[in-house]
Amino acid sequence: MAYEKPFLDLKLTMEDVILVKPSKPTPSSVISLSTIDNRPELNSLCQTIHIFKPPNNTILIDDPQNAQNDPALVIKEALSKALFYYYPLAGRLVKHADGKLRIHCNAYGVPFLEAIANCKLSCLHYLDGSDTENAKHLAFDNPFHEDDDDENGYQYPLGIKVTKFLCGGFTVGIGASHAVFDGIGGSQFFQAMAELASGKSEPSVKPVWERERLNGSITEHPLLSPMDEASAAVSPYLPTKTLVHECFKVDSESIKRLKKSLMKEISYSNNINYSLEGESFTSFEALGAYVWRSRTRALKLNYDGKTSLAIVVGLRRNHSLIPPLPEGYYGNAFVDPKVVLTVKELNEKPLSHVVKMIKETKKLGFSKEYIRNAIDTKETKIEHFDYQGIGASMVLSSWMHLGMLENMNKGWAKPVNMVPAPCNMFGTVGVCIFSPPSDLDPSMNGGVRIFVSLPNDAMPMFKEEMEALMLVKP
User: Cα separation of 85 and 73, whole Å?
Assistant: First the structure.
C-alpha cells in the first residue's frame, strides 16, 4: 500500500474537555470490584487508539454542512446511550481506607475531548508502522484527581478523545481503567457503542456486573512467588526512565516456518515422526517462547538469574468455574500462571522445550484448584518485591481475539487499525502485546504484530532477533 511521506510535526487543536452523562437516569450507589480487579498492577490506564479511514468522496471535517456526519457528535451521542447500560463507567473510581477500589456511581460523566489534527491520516501511515510515538498524542490521558471531600482522590474509569483529520478520517483514543474491565470487557463496551451509533435501540449483549463471583478469601496457603529479590535476573540497562517502543510485524509464513522448525526439533529429540499437519502447539505458544528468549537476550539478563513469563489465561469460557461467568460480564476475568527458568536454561535449552512449558502452564491456568488458589492469594495480599522494573518478568498479553476492529456501521466510518498507546501499560518494560494486523496490509493476513518497550540500548539486539525469525528454516 502506498503512503504519503511521514508527517513529523503533528499538531492538535483541542476543545475543552466535557463530561458526557448517561442518556437516562441511572442508579446512585457505591459498588465493589472483584479481587482480580483490585490487583495493584491493574490500577492503571489501558490506552488504545482506534483508527477510522475516510471513505471515498468524503466531505472534509471543516465543511459546516457535514455536521450530521461529524464523528465526534455521533460518538458522543452513542457514548451517552451506552452509559445508561454501563452506568458505573460514568462514576468515579475511589480507593477506600481498606485499600480496595470501589466505584461511586453518581452519573458524574465520562471526560470527552475533541481535537483537530493539522494533517491527513495517511501522513501517519494510519499508525500501521513501527513509529508508535504519535499514538501518545492521540491517546486520552486520564489523570488522578485530588478531591477536597476525599483524601484519596478519584479517577475516571473511562475517557475518550476523538481526533479529526483533514482527510475526513479520525481516531478514537480510549483511556480505560484496567481495574474496571479487561480487553474482552472493553471490547464488549465499545461494540455496544458501535451498535447504538448504528441506530440500534439497545446493545445486543447486556452488561453484567457480578464482581463478587471472582472474590477471594484469606488463605493460610498462598501460592509461592516464583522468584525473590536474590534470585531474579537483572539487566545492565535497567532501571531506566527512558524506554523506546516498537511494533514488529511477523507474517503468517514466518510463523508457519517457526512452528515447523519446532516440530522437527521435537521429532528429532524424541525420535518420533510427527505429522506437520497435526500441530501440537499454537502460534501464541511458539511466538511467545521465541519473543521471551529474544527479549531476555536483548536485555542481557545475567545467566544465573531467574526470569519468568506470565501467561494470561481467560476465565470466561472456563469449565472449571461452576456456574460459568454470565455472558455480558465485563470485569477482569483471568489468571496469569508463570513459567520460570534461569536465563541459562532459557538460552541453552531447545526452544521446543520452552514451548512445551508454556503449553503446560496454560493448562495449569485452566484448572479449578489453581484458579481458586490464585484468587485467594491475591486477596491475602502477600507482599513480594517489585521485579517488574529490572526486566526479570515478562507478561504476554494476546489481543488477537478481542474483536476491536468492529465496523461502526455508519457507512462513513470503518475502523482499519487499532494500536496500544505507549503511555502506561504498553509503556512498561514488563509487558509484551500480541495484536492482530490492521486491515491496511494484505500481506499480513494471518500474521501478528508484536508491541514491546525496551531500553534504548537493548532494542537493536531485539530487532536482530526478530529479523532472524524471518530467516528461520522449516
Answer: 20
